[in-house]
Every structure is written in C-alpha cells, then in structure tokens.
Write a structure and sequence with these properties.
- By secondary structure, this protein is mainly α.
- It is 61% helix and 5% strand.
- The strands form three sheets. The protein has a two-stranded antiparallel sheet with strand order 1-2. Strands 3-4 form a two-stranded parallel sheet. It has a two-stranded antiparallel sheet with strand order 5-6.
- Bound molecules: arginine.
C-alpha cells in the first residue's frame, strides 16, 4: 500500500521502487514506530480528533501489531507505511485516521530519536562492561611492571594496571559524551508535521512526556530536518573506536615475540592456513580495522547533510544505515575487546626484564642529581653522557661501578643504586595520576566504586 497514491496515475518503476525502499533497514524502527503511534493516537484523542472508542480500537490494534508482528517481506516503502498498512488491515477505514496532523517527516525523526535513546543506554552498558574487563585485568596483574613508551622507544617503567587505567579513563570520557548526546537526542519532534507544524491541537508537551522525552523541539523546520543528533552520536562512536583501536594496537604489539609481554589465548586468536607456527591477533586487528568503517559512517552522514535545503529531503533516509552500522560495529568491537582482555596472559618475567632494562631509569638518575642541588638541565646533560658510557660498557646504569659514575659527577654516592632501582623509580611517581603502586591502587579503588 502506498501512502501517497492519489496524485499519481502512472506506476512506479520497479527499479526505482527498490532504490527508494528503506524497509530493509528501517525495520529496526518497528517497535519504536508502533510505540510512538500508540502515544500519538492518545494525543489525537485528547485533541478531540479521535473519539474515545476510536482511539481505544486503534490503540488495541497497534498493541496487537506490536506483539504479533514480524516485519515480513512486505512491499511497503518503509516501516511507517508498513505499520499503517497493517493497522488499516486490522481496523479498516478507522486506521486511516491515525496519520491526521502527522507526517512521516516528524514521525521518522521521532522514531529515530526513540531508537537512539535506547541504543545509547545499551551502548553505555557495553562500554561499562569493557571498563570492567580492564579493571579485572589490572587487578589480576597488580604487581606487573611493563616498559612505558614514547615514540615507541622505551621511556619509563609503568604498572600494567596504570596502562589499563589509561584506557579506562578514555572509555569514561566516551560514556560522558554518550550521556551528553543522549540529552540532545531526547527531544521530541512529533507535532512538527511535514515542516510547518501541525494544524491540530495536539498537546505536544504531554505527548512528549508520555514517550519519556525531556522536552519538545522548538522549531518545526529544524525538527524535521535536524540530524545533528546522529552526527554527534557517530562522532562519539568514532572516538570510542579511536580508543579501542589504540588499545588493539598496544595489545598486538605486546603480543609479538619481539615484545613478548602478552600472550593471546586460543579463544581470541587465529592460525594461518599456511604457516603452522602462527597465532595471529585477528580479534584486535579487526577492531583496529573497523575503526575506519565507523569514521566512514560519520563522514558519510556529514557529507549527506551538507548543503541540504530546509526542510526534509529524502537524502536524509541515508542517516539510518550509517547510525545502525556504527552502533553494531562499536558494540561488537567493545564486546570483542572485553573478551580479549579476559584472554590475555601476561609474561611477568619478560615484562620485568624489559621494564628494568633499556636505561628507563635515566630520568631517575637526573632527578637524583637534582636532589643533590644540580639544575635539571645540567643533570640531564650529565646523565646523557653517563648513558653513552654505559652503552659503551654494555651495562645498565645500576650495573655500573660507583667510580665510573663519579667520573661524571663527584656528587654521586652509594645511594645512587637505591635511586636507580625499579621499585624506587615507580614509587617516586606518587602524585595523583602517577604510576606509583599506592597511587595506582587508590585509582583502581576509586574507579571500581565509580562504575558500580
Ligand atoms: N523512510 C523515510 C526516511 O527514512 C521516512 C520519511 C519519508 N518522508 C517523506 N516525505 N518521503 O527518511
């Protein structure tokens, strides 16, 4: 059934009908479409457009559609046409009254906001589960020290738990962003009709609150043509993928035999069809790869919206696949990342050897000299020379003899070895946000509580 046949005499070209059809993907709006229609039917009743018995019958039919309906292979143009056609099948001419004062333009904007609101809540839970996996991983490996890197060159040792908390913080900001997007999503366009507003005395505020919306849109032209909320959602999704992709990259690197810090469990790795020895981190590679796909969704929608005249244009139907795809991709990537975290074993000894070598305590030596009264810049210079000498001697700093140190500075005494120890290196980073064991324990305890 077409919703707009009256003005037409000719038939729609089948190829174009197929091209125009959105039921294939907007069937995901089925439930929210029916729910919004039930609320709208009650609003029409309150406005005196539908008699009580009429509203009751429509309401009842919509409930039945909601309960029994699989969106079948109907030829309906979109989910809205599908539901309306079913309603008319069940209630006859009465069903034809439901669309009074409403357009698919405000209907689809309303449906999509309802769908996205629930989906943001679901996504928020999935992000939280991934955060929990990070905390579990951190707590199971509390004592583990790993090398920290800048420029992918060994920099300073950090606790593995500190590394986990870094990703935890990124995901915490992602959840904040989702909550902010949700606030702007939760505004009701219904009652804007096609573009100019509705001609029937619908109590929009009451309708909004019956659907759980926080408020009503303030301009009908804007309400039917605004897809900012989708762009914001895609942008928040893109940042989640940036974060997961960086996590993926770290895990992939640490699981190489060259780094040798992580080993991936069989559950989340794959083999090679040719090389029998291989164990590949496909799980994390796919997460890293799928980031590109979500950025694509964001760019696609931005490009679609740019240059659209007010108000609704059919271009906007393209919003759905971008948002659905991003939602599915981000949810799946989060879930797989959480599973990966539960299936990593850490090679503690190897991590320790790596964390205690490569001159990652050179900054400690400079700080030691600073505490002896030498300006940092000068200390930095001196330690640079000591490191050169140590490389020459093929020794770590703490393996060098005291007299060797003293050639560079008479201020260095036997206390230097304590200062250069791995534990001291860690313990000195004791301010908020640092990698000292106490600071990290406190951070873990704080965030554990915050995500309950
Ligand atoms: N399927 C359409 C969409 O997703 C619904 C709105 C159609 N409105 C219209 N005036 N053709 O955008």
């Amino acid at each position: 059934m077409k919703l707009w046949g009256g003005r037409f005499e000719g038939k729609t070209d089948p190829g174009f009908a197929e091209f125009n059809n959105s039921l294939r993907f907007d069937r995901r709006l089925f439930e929210v479409d029916v729910t919004a229609s039930i609320a709208y039917c009650r609003a029409l009743e309150a406005a005196g457009v539908l008699a009580s018995e009429e509203a009751a019958e429509i309401h009842d039919a919509l409930e039945r559609i909601l309960k029994s309906e699989q969106v079948n292979d109907s030829t309906a143009e979109d989910v809205h046409s599908f539901v309306e056609a079913r309603l008319i099948e069940l209630t006859g001419d009465l069903g034809r009254k439901l669309h009074t004062g409403r357009s698919r333009n405000d209907q689809v904007a309303t449906d999509f906001r309802l769908w996205l609101r629930a989906s943001i809540d679901e996504l928020n839970n999935v992000v939280r589960d991934t955060q929990t996996s990070l905390l579990d991983f951190a707590e199971a490996n509390r004592e583990v020290v790993i090398p920290g890197y800048t420029h992918l060159q060994k920099a300073q040792p950090v606790l593995l738990a500190h590394w986990c908390l870094a990703y935890f913080e990124m995901l915490a900001r992602d959840r904040e962003r989702l909550a902010e997007v949700r606030r702007r999503v939760n505004i009701m366009p219904l009652g804007s009709a096609a573009l100019a507003g509705t001609s029937f005395p619908i109590d929009r505020e009451a309708l909004a609150s019956s659907l759980g919306f926080e408020g009503v849109s303030r301009n009908s032209l804007d309400a039917v043509s605004d897809r900012d909320f989708c762009v914001e959602f895609l942008s928040a999704c893109s940042l989640i993928m940036v974060h997961l992709s960086r996590l993926a990259e770290d895990v992939i690197l640490y699981a190489t035999s060259e780094f040798g810090i992580f080993e991936l469990g069989d559950a989340i790795a794959t083999g090679s069809s040719l090389m029998p020895q291989k164990k590949n981190p496909d799980s994390m590679e796919l997460v890293r790869g799928k980031a590109g796909r979500v950025f694509g969704d964001l760019l696609a929608l931005l490009t679609t919206l740019k240059g659209l005249p007010l108000a609704y244009n059919k271009d906007m139907q393209e919003d759905k696949e971008a948002v659905f795809d991003a939602f599915d991709t981000v949810s799946a990537s989060l879930r797989v990342s959480a599973t990966v975290l539960r299936n990593i074993s850490v090679n503690k000894e190897r991590a320790l050897v790596s964390a205690a070598s490569g001159y990652m305590n050179a900054t400690e030596l400079a700080d030691y000299l600073v505490r002896k009264g030498i300006p940092f810049r000068e200390a930095h210079e001196t330690v640079g020379k000591i490191v050169m000498r140590a490389i020459e001697l093929k020794k770590e700093l703490n393996q060098m003899e005291l007299r060797e140190f003293q050639k560079f500075s008479a201020l260095i005494d036997g206390g230097v070895y304590e200062a250069l120890s791995l534990e001291r290196t860690l313990a000195s980073k004791s301010q908020i946000g640092g990698t000292a064991r106490d600071a990290v324990d406190a951070a873990l305890a704080r965030v554990r509580e915050s995500i309950l």
